[in-house]
Amino acid sequence: MTEKDTYKTITGASPEVLFKDRNSKFYGYAYPVTTEEEIRDHLESLKKKHHSARHWCYAWQLGMENPRFRANDDGEPNNSAGMPIYGQIQSFDVTNVLIVVVRYFGGVKLGVGGLINAYRNAAQMALEAADIEERTIDVKYELAFEYKDMNKVMRIIKEKNLNIADQKLELDCRITITVRKREAGMVAEIFEQLYGVEIKCVTH
C-alpha cells in the first residue's frame, strides 16, 4: 500500500450559512487555519460580531499525518455540538480547518437530538459553501553546493519538475526545494549521489 501523500483543505473562509430550527438560529462558518493562534483570532472576531448570541461552538483539526483536533460544546449539553461539527470535518476528510457554529436561542428547547442535528447541518452547510482542494504533502530539502555545480543541480530540478521554494545563488549556493512526499526518498538519493552537493531535510 502506498503511503498517503495528499490532503484536503479549504482554500478560503466560507460565506456565512444559516440553519434554523424552531426559532433557534445556527450560523455556520468554515476557515482555513494552520495555527491555534489563528483559531483564537477567528473565534474572537465572531464573538464580537455575534456578541448577543448564546453559544459559539466549534471544532478544528490541524496537521496532515498525525492531525490534532479539538471539539468544544461551549455550554451546550455534552457532545451535542462540538463532536457533530467535528464529524463533518471527518466526513468531508479535510484538515487545517476550523468550523464555528454560532447559536441564537429561539425560546424553544431542541433537546440533545435536535441540537446534534442542527450543529451537524450548519457545519455541513459551511463546508459545502467552502472551496475544498486537494494538496500534496511535501518534504522540504536544502541543497548546498558550489557555483560550479549549478548546472547539474538545475538539470535535475528541471528533469524531476521540482519546486524551488527559496534560493541563494552566490559562490556558495543554497536552494530549498519542496518534493512530494512519495518521491522524496528517490529525489534525495539522486542528490546524495551527486559529487559536491550536500542535501538535508529541513522539515518533515
From TrEMBL:
**Pfam families recorded:** Impact_N
Example of a GO biological process term: regulation of translational initiation
Q: Which Gene3D superfamilies match?
A: Impact, N-terminal domain
Instruction: Show where the Impact N-terminal domain sits.
Output: 22-127
The cellular component terms of Gene Ontology attached to this UniProt record, alphabetical and capped at eight, are: cytoplasm
Among InterPro entries, the record links this protein to: Impact, Impact_N, Impact_N_sf, Ribosomal_Su5_D2-typ_SF
Q: Which domain of life is it from?
A: Bacteria
The Swiss-Prot or TrEMBL record describes its family as follows:
Belongs to the IMPACT family.
Protein's UniProt name: YigZ family protein
Lineage runs: Bacteria, Pseudomonadati, Bacteroidota, Flavobacteriia, Flavobacteriales
